[in-house]
Amino acid sequence: MRVFHRKRWLTPYLLLAPGMLWLALFFLVPLGFLFYQSLESGNIDFGYAFTWAWGNYSSAIRSYRGQFERSFEYAGIATVVAFLVSYPVAYWIAFRGGRWKNLLLLFIVAPFFVTYLIRTLAWETILSDNGFVVRILHDIGVLSPGGRLLATGTAVVAGITYNFLPFMALPLYVSLEQIDQRLIEAAEDLYASRWAAFIRVTFPLSLPGVVAGTLLTFIPAAGDFINAELLGSPTNHMIGNVIESKYKELLDYPAAASMSFILMAIILAMILLYARAVGTEQLTG
Amino acid sequence: MTSVAVPLRSRRGTLAAAVAFARRHVLTVYSLLFFAYLMLPIGVVIAFSFNDPKGRFNYTWQGFTWKNWEQWNAIPDLQSAIQLSLLIALIASIVATLLGTLVALALVRYGFRGRAATNLLVFLPLSTPEIVLGASLLTLFLNLTSVLPIGFWTILIAHIMFCISFAVVTVKARLIGFDRHLEEAAMDLGANELTTFTKVTLPLIAPAILAALLLCFAISIDDFVVTYFNAGNRVTFPIFVWGAARVATPPQINVIGTAIFVVAVTLMLANVVFQNRRAKQA
After folding, report:
1. Percent of chain A, pLDDT > 90?
2. Is residue B1 scored above 50 in pLDDT?
3. Which of B40, B159, B179, B198 has the most CB atoms at less than 10 Å from its CB?
4. How far apart are CA A110 and CA A144, in angstroms?
5. Is residue B255 assigned to a domain?
6. What is the DSSP letter of B50?
């Protein structure tokens, strides 16, 4: 303890060292290796060599533009749907939950307690051709005879939406629950209609939750390949599927590395745009 | 007579109350539907753990049986996969929570050069898609195969890595709302820094540390993507499920899924009850 007294300035660094070293060694360094590998050329039989092969990047975009676009399209739709679907529920729990709040929150995170792959397989069962959802949709004429849900983009987006829904609902709830009710009452005292009070007071105050929820949903959704693999067909494949097969099956490491970097760069660029709009403190806490 | 007896104001009040009542119930009905949707796949998982499938795939309902629960480990490699997942989750959650708590203490308690960079380094893994985390670690490990064969240790290293940030965020949230006067009081009463930490600080942040432990455990045991890249030929439970999904899905997968679900929900329910009771006492 003596040491701490004399060299107080050292204490925070000693506390930080193990954790930060771990992240540096096993997060930052690997990213460096990945970047290095993304500039290699060659093939798996004769080995890869570093050649500043920037062409990997342009050819990745050229060859897999469709999968890149689909990833961001699916992730975008899933994020918007998750927001629209879960906002009213987050609002309901925050303002009307009363003493049941904690229990209701438990329901919100319940899907996380079922292994990710198993709940996606459950959706495969639910959306399958002889499942009740498809039968009902046939009966009311939404699906044409012979039309199916499984192996379509709709199924993939539905799976992504479901799987990341708690990431959206929880931050929304947290920001709504922190709102000082008196501000809303004040707005209504000043003759704002309930709707106006919501649009001009409640919703703006919940924006930090909207931002956090959007990011927490969109980022994993854009890199996902499990939903497309289990619920979609090859025509629904996202960039995650391409990276996965290049890495695990084709052993085309430079191509997979460059695609990983492009994916990360696009996502980081989007976060930065977001950060500029809302302020960085809200992002990093 | 009736129109005179009911004052105008209160009649408008009744109307507003009726509208408010309807509006409130629209939201309630919607929320209940939402929860039904949320629970639907969970119900399917549980129900199909009692299914008696005819073929290799457990996708259509054939009939009720207890068989899958009685012979939960009848599938080769399933038991060892679960054991590996539990072991990894246990070690990873303990190590990550320890490292994360120290980082959180430094971030909230001390002003130091490099704070912003530290915050960024904690935040970045959370905002990186899992597939990039997994792929980049594999690239590193492929270069280290002579010292560190890909398998148990690489899985463990990876899990600790992605758990640290979650632990930091969880403990930090609790520390920010922490009344520092309590520590100052202890110091004024003659406690040294170590005593103050173990007798005052630690008990107060214990719930957050426990929450971080549970969160890390849950994330680790459920992780597929990063593990899939860095497991070599070791098989964790999610990797087992992935392999099974392509060739055959034995109902025992649903048995294990249901068991994990029930244990986790019981723990969380106990926590909710405990916190409600504490809130009532306070």
Report:
1. 52
2. no
3. B159
4. 34
5. no
6. T
Which pTM does this prediction carry? Answer: 0.87
In chain A, residues with a C-beta closer than 8 Å to the C-beta of B124 are: 27
Q: What are phi and psi of A40, to 5 degrees?
A: -90, 160
Are B121 and A22 an interchain contact pair (Cβ–Cβ within 8 Å)?
no
Quote the CA–CA distance of B201 and B178 in Å, as a whole number. 9
Taking CB atoms and an 8 Å cutoff, what residues of chain A touch B228? 248
B108-132: average pLDDT: 90
Q: Give the model's confidence band at B10: pLDDT under 50 very low, under 70 low, under 90 confident, else very high.
A: low
Helix (H, G, I), strand (E, B) or coil at A38: helix
Cα A203 from chain centroid (whole Å): 22
CB atoms B30 and A92 under 8 Å: yes
pLDDT number for residue B94: 97
- Is A7 inside any structural domain? no
Q: Do A113 and B132 touch (CB under 8 A)?
A: no
Are B157 and A126 an interchain contact pair (Cβ–Cβ within 8 Å)? no
Q: Which chain B residues are Cβ-neighbours of A128 within 8 angstroms?
A: 59-60
Q: Does the distance separating the beta carbons of B269 and A243 come in below 8 Å?
A: no
Indicate yes or no: CB of A117 within 8 angstroms of CB of B242.
yes
Alpha carbon dihedral A213, A214, A219, A223, in 10-degree steps, equals 110
Residue A247 contacts B where some CB pair is shorter than 8 Å: yes
Report if residue B18 sits inside a domain: yes
Query: Could you tell me the CATH number of the domain that includes residue A132?
Result: 1.10.3720.10
- Whether residue B147 is contained in a domain is answered as yes
- Tell me: do B100 and B219 sit in the same domain: yes
What is the extent of the structural domain holding A120?
64-284
A201 at interface of B, judged by CB pairs closer than 8 A: no
Rounded-to-integer distance, Cα B190 and Cα A96, Å:
47
- Interval A188-216 mean pLDDT: 88
Report the pLDDT averaged over residues A123-135.
87
For chain A, what is the domain count?
Answer: 1
pLDDT at B55 over 80: no
pLDDT digits (tens, 9 = 90+) for A220-272: 999 999 999 999 999 999 999 999 999 888 888 999 999 999 999 999 888 88
- In chain A, the residue whose alpha carbon lies closest to the alpha carbon of B241 is A117
Q: Is A39 on the interface with B (CB under 8 A)?
A: no
Average pLDDT, chain A: 88
Q: What is the ipTM of this complex?
A: 0.87
The DSSP code sequence of B89-158 is: HHHHHHHHHHHHHHHHHHHHH---TTHHHHHHHHHHHHTS-HHHHHHHHHHHHHTSTTTS-SSHHHHHHH
- pLDDT at B2 (0 to 100): 43
Question: Do the domain assignments include residue B264?
Answer: no
Distance from CA of B7 to the nearest CA of A (A): 22
Q: Do A247 and B268 touch (CB under 8 A)?
A: no
Give the pLDDT confidence score for residue A168 in this predicted structure.
94
